[in-house]
Write a structure and sequence with these properties.
Four copies of one chain form a homotetramer.
Chain A lengths: L5 E11 L4 E9 L2 E6 L5 E6 L4 E4 L1 E3 L18 H10 L2 E4 L2 E3 L6 H15 L3 E2 L2 E3 L5 H13 L4 E5 L9 H14 L2 E5 L3 H13 L5 H7 L2 H18 L3 E3 L5 H12 L4 E5 L1 H5 L24 H13 L4 E2 L35 H11 L5 H15 L17 E11 L18 E11 L2 E5 L2 E2 L18
Parallel strand pairs in A: 1-4, 1-5, 6-7, 7-9, 8-10, 10-11, 11-12, 12-13, 13-14, 14-15
Antiparallel strand pairs in A: 1-2, 2-3, 5-16, 16-17, 17-18, 18-19
The structure holds zinc ion (8 copies).
The site of one zinc ion has 3 residues of chain B, from loops.
Chain lengths: ~475, ~475, ~475, ~475
């Protein structure tokens, strides 16, 4: 009896999961992984992965794509450009937002984003629903229905003038999330503190981008975390705290988890690799490094790495939010905007994994299994995309990134595939690069060249799972 | 050479300060203490205090007198009735509020309360200014001027629909307090949480007074403390947290003080001697025990005693807020109100000291010096009324309460001198009672009988002092 | 081209690693796993695992086998009986001790235990070296040499009259461990406190087994943890704290890890499933449940589960230490011993996994992946036996336990394969049982029957790895 | 009727207690304070104190006087020289030690020290009994009898070769203290850690005084505190932790007190005003600054001040332990001793108060009332010498120090009245100095000149009081 030929064999690479690292072939049949073994025979196609690492494609659970900001600025990417850039960075699953604004019907919002994604996405995707207007209809009708349709996470903002949810409606949303079995994700910063700082700084003429970092006083993060956690505990609703940036914030989370509360948290490369000093550039140049919360201090970077090591933070997302450094984006208010007029956000879908690979694998901080866990397995589990996504296992989708651990790359703006036009990490030399990327068995990046069609990505319906 | 006769000698009592307890005579000349010694000669008048305790008159730093609530209810007392009741309870200094409502001119508000106090008060007084409408004029003109005139503390509410100050304006007030050298006092509870709980409870038909206690979820206290402390730390402004009711709240304060932050805090007899169960009475009866925050659990009482022992809380005030149990007060919305329709507050000026004396001195918890410290010396120091008030020392105002430590009293409604018409502590048997009370050397309660004229109390201008 | 036949295929089971759970066949070639896939063809032998779970064999990192106690009692098991019982419980790797006593040459000790294991063991094994007599020769010559030979962990006792290491020599041992790259494991209890309690209890006639639990005052654990951690931090040497039993102990560990210290810790089934009440039996019967530290309270059980969930504790070992309930073991001092005369220890190699499987998988606490992690993967990693042991991955040793998740078993003494003659968990009904067990591809338990030869287990040399 | 003439009137000074500061005369009759008032008439003698501060004489609760060290070195002072130096520094009560060595009968030890003190002391005194040899007779017979005779505190050492008490006997002593109602004071450092550090340092040739500071690794303090507190909590016995030197140590105490444990603690001027750098002098010179624990860092100084402010530490003692910088003392082992051969200890009875006055009153840190509390009132209360000692109150002993707050003094060796021959604080310029000192109404220092007879001090019997 002969073994039926597999559709594809990735031959001789070094495979890593969050638990194991070993040498083997990976065989793909159709869209999924059929076998992992040594000396597997007969692939209709084969990829030689000797000397390479064969990793699960990254799962980026926090990215703003083709999204209209509250200030009315459309971000720079389309689903096509954003997901292509993700693919080039080794990421094969993304969870962008279906972003309501005040007055919008949430069902319609979700439908609209589905249409955009369906047209453009080259990798698979799910959605977080951003709720800005928690009307009775939204919470009692739309949310339960949409969660049932597979949109099992809600995101809210505790700051931003046109987005922020106050404590009382936030409790309504937490209760609705609990009722429908959705995870609640939050941009948690204290709005009043930031608004007050901004007011004081601008009134005194401190307008440059670097003052953005000062305006987000450190306490505005830890305070909001503490408040959100208290409310979530009251409702007994799990939460995911987005983009932790400070040591104090990480400590609030550690304490809450130590009390047994269901608190998850992420950080982002900008908080691990940048500091507030990066915003201190001549003129408006610092705007390229402006995001919210802002990068902080070297000591915060250390605290965040420690929190990742201890499991206090479980994942690293990009918070991709691309704005061009021109009048369509960062400089919309002119060439010399005050910091409050500058759109917040950095492009990051493409560089997230290479930056982390370099730090964790090439430089050895926490190691390869932890790299896989933080960037793929853990987000897939928290957002209930596992076992389909996030690991290399028989039966899982063949979402695979083949990394050349020896390839050295100096980041520059030109190699970015998103439409932001720049990367805040330009000039950094990284070791380790994803050379070939598969999504459900289809090659989408092959030896550094795009080979994916717009619209070939698929929606991933999911319910809240264990985390919710 | 003969000693000039003293105006008054209190003979042979046992004197206590926050530090010392000893037997001696106290001699008064004019309004102040002239000498303390054994065998002092020649008082024009003498009081035999043998077998009695001679203590500094109490300082009650938190009392609502002749104050209009946000709901438009005038509380039950006049300055005369309130201060007479205070005097009967051994208290000789009180700090009520000059309470702004939205749209009111703060200068005028302060003037109005001065007029009321001047007419009625039988003991000396200062004012906290309640700010509800922090306009530019209020903060930049009125506050500095009023602080200079001796009103060196500001109170704000973080909850109550028509009173609450949101985070951004709260920072403005903190900054204004810092600028003018005033202490910032706060009723710190999370408004959104309470509002949400109320909404849910009423919607489900949970309307009785006991649900008031449930509506103020425990976390609403610790959360607000944490937030307020964070903002005060940002501004580097000292704060006084009013009426701590929970163990968690006390812990937040201990942690903050351990970090070197300038945080003061008080609790009240209702949190040391009542629990939420006291609100669980038939019909509307529980309304008599309704105050905000509500009494909590026996374990909270223990935690608060511990916090007092450790200095985490520095003083015990009454939060006197009297409403009659009739249609002018608690039952304004009818005989069967829902808990949200009931005015919050308890009468307490008269019973504060007897309740604490019984617990601390007669039953021995923490002892006599600590009783004096918590009820007189510490508030006098924090609010910068010391050395004039709060201790028995040469040169200090002769504000003295002579206690019979053996007198047993069963509290009842009839013996109360305020106009609330009831005491929530009726039926309790206490050991120890103030029998004679002096204010600036004048007898205001003599052997259990009033001997003070309305309007004989005086305003005590003060600046912020060390605490601010 | 045909695939070469695998030696063995385990067909159609549900495979679990610490990360993934999926259905697939497992193919074994020689001693290792050759492939994992669906529809693998041609095994020389096949096992039908449909409806079963295919898990990595357990790694039990703490077991006393054929070991002479300080009191001169040989424990009940031989390497054969102990490892057979382990195999029947789904465990395929064990780390017992090579136990020095005062005056013994550590090299000789290790050699002796090797001889015993080589003769009897049916599963693979490594050794911890117990150091009781840290002479210069031991620390400077024997330890480095023995670590180089693959004995990369040292165990010390902080209590027990003839075993305990005082602080100063403990620092010598920590320094020697650091120098040679070994992990330091510790039985950490405060000797003086326990000795004092024992003295007081016996002097007052409290002699029954239940007083054993009282004699190990709770503080004796947290104190010793704190002290050990302090000393290890001074030397910058990683440590493994054995058998955590109290909530306070777990908290000390959490705090230390939060500070970035390299502290690992285990607990045991007796602390998760028994309490001190289990020792309260008539006469000497309670002796069957006597171990050190003793089982504690239900609240401690909860705290330990929480610590496992949070990663503060990383593994669950058996601390197998079998003594018969007769004059050769527990009753060596006669039928009515005082608690101090009773040998401490419980048999546990066989029941560790079934007890945990029932709780974690069948009853759902923490789940299947975490079960695999705590009982196999994590100990294999900490003790540097991974990737050979502790997971199901291509290239790993084919140490596999096939569990019937539906099999219900009521534990009884007769089904135990060790020589203790009883199990402290008799009478418990468990759901889930390992029915077939493989060690390096050899069937050692087949459908509930032993099929392993004495001496077929192999020594696993290892260096300290990442943990050390 | 005329007032009988007082024996002495201190006229017109500014009096301070731990609570109050005010201007008044102090009248003394016989040995005690008879009156405090303005315009008191007719003193047989008068002291003009206008422009001066009239403070309670200091209480120094930790001083080694005429004491034989474990190494057999008699310290430099006699009771006469030590107490004269104390008096010159404004201290009027001292608690030295009656120090047992192994084999000594504790009753005899106490008797011997009584004889020495009776002969020499010029100020009043009590004794702590140092227990080094806790025999059954000592604990069951001598301790109860001696406590009844007024020696209500026991001191133990957790380190020093010939002094240290191990955990088990320490529990015996704690239990004996509890039984007899004595306070337990401790020199708490981990012996093993220090011994190990010493061994390593000397072996590597690090012999200079500065290595003494390194040998007392920071963790050796916090560890010992934690262990001692745990054991005391087990016995429910109050403890006083001597000479806290590190931030970590202070934190352990704060945490324990926060849990409601009865833990008291002191620090000393050397930990508030010196650092380890002071030991880094050429040759053996650093020996002059050697004490145990050693001075630490500037950040520790800050932490200790904070702990004093918060009440975590309640008092500042001198730990006076004088050794001459010659062959009778520090250089007993020759002119070039290794640090282990140098006697530990600093002279401090005279400078304690001036150093603290300068920092707290002249420079304003914590203020005058807190100065009085930390240096006089609090130790008097903790050791149950209050109300006789520690405050200025009617009926109290007339132990009074009159300070000139404007007097500037540069400390030098010659002005020291003890026999150490040097002060480690030479060269410091202080503002504020005690010019006249009274003990029980007798002038003992008058305008900077000694006027006290040897042997005029008296023993102060005391029971354990509230603290014990
Ligand atoms: Zn955000
Ligand atoms: Zn975002
Ligand atoms: Zn209030
Ligand atoms: Zn109030
Ligand atoms: Zn053990
Ligand atoms: Zn063991
Ligand atoms: Zn000492
Ligand atoms: Zn000493």
């Amino acid at each position: 009896m002969t073994e039926p030929a597999y559709d594809l064999i990735i031959r001789g690479g070094r495979i890593a999961t969050a638990t194991d690292v070993f040498e083997a072939d990976v065989a793909v049949s159709g869209e999924t992984i059929a076998a992992i073994g040594r000396g597997l025979v007969t692939g209709k196609r084969e990829i030689d992965a000797r000397g390479k690492l064969v990793l699960p494609g990254g799962v980026d659970a926090h990215a703003h794509i083709e999204q209209l900001s509250a200030a009315g600025i459309m971000n720079a990417d389309t689903f096509e450009s954003a997901t292509v850039s993700a693919a080039f960075g080794g990421t094969t699953t993304v969870i962008p937002f279906a972003a309501q604004h005040v007055g919008m019907n949430l069902r319609q919002v979700v439908e609209d984003y589905h249409a955009l994604a369906k047209k453009g996405a080259v990798i698979d995707y799910a959605f977080h629903m951003i709720i800005v207007d928690p009307t009775k209809e939204t919470l009692e009708e739309h949310v339960p229905a949409l969660v049932k349709q597979g949109h099992a996470s809600i995101k809210i903002f505790m700051t931003y003038d046109r987005l922020k949810i106050d404590d009382e409606p936030l409790l309504d949303i937490l209760a609705a999330a609990r009722e429908s079995g959705a995870l609640l994700c939050a941009h948690a910063e204290n709005h009043g503190i930031i608004a007050w700082m901004v007011k004081r700084l601008l009134a005194r003429g401190y307008t440059q981008p670097k003052y953005h970092a000062i305006s987000h006083a450190r306490i505005s993060e830890a305070e909001a975390f503490n408040r959100l956690i208290g409310m979530a505990a009251l409702i007994d609703q799990p939460i995911m705290i987005f983009h932790v940036s400070t040591a104090e914030g990480a400590k609030v989370i550690r304490d809450a988890r130590g009390q047994g509360l269901k608190v998850f948290a992420e950080t982002c490369p900008q908080y691990l690799f940048l500091t507030a000093d990066d915003l201190d550039k001549p003129g408006a140049d610092g705007a390229k490094w402006m995001c919210s919360p802002p990068p902080r201090r070297v000591s915060d970077q250390e605290a965040l790495w420690q929190a990742l090591a201890l499991g206090d933070l479980q994942t690293v997302s990009s918070d991709h939010a691309p704005y061009r450094f021109d009048e369509t984006g960062k400089l919309r208010a002119g060439p010399n905007p005050n910091f409050k007029q500058v759109a917040n956000g950095l492009p990051g879908l493409q560089v997230r994994l290479p930056l982390l690979f370099d730090a964790m694998v090439s430089k050895g901080r926490l190691g390869l299994e932890k790299f896989v866990e933080l960037t793929a397995t853990a987000p897939a589990k928290i957002y209930n995309l596992h076992p389909r996504k996030g690991s290399i296992a028989v039966g899982a989708d063949a979402d695979i990134a083949i990394w050349d651990p020896a390839r050295e790359v100096i980041l520059n703006d030109e190699m970015m595939h998103d439409l932001a036009g720049y990367t805040p990490f330009a000039g950094r030399k990284l070791r380790g690069w994803p050379v070939t990327v598969l999504s459900r068995g289809r090659m989408i990046v092959a030896d550094g060249k795009r080979s994916a069609e717009a619209g070939s990505g698929r929606f991933l319906p999911r319910n809240g799972g264990d985390a919710a």
